[in-house]
Amino acid sequence: MFLLEKGQNIDIDLAYSQPVTVSSSKDGENVTDRDANTTWTPDADDENPSLTIGLDREYNIENFSVDFEGEA
Hints:
Layout: E1 2-3, E2 9-10, E3 20-22, E4 51-53
Antiparallel strand pairs: 1-2, 3-4
InterPro entries: FA58C, Galactose-bd-like_sf
Domain F5/8 type C: 1-72
Region (Disordered): 21-51
């Protein structure tokens, strides 16, 4: 659930197809492709893995969900 305007709750994927920056070289675009068969995993030697999704504007997000591999 995302809060766009005060009092307005919507259930959408704000990250879909948005640009992704990752700390390692592996498939960052897989994070926002809505394909349950693709994943992002940092390189094994990445000591500080990070992932940033560039949204198209600023949002006040009160709740969000992340789907981890193996969850369904």
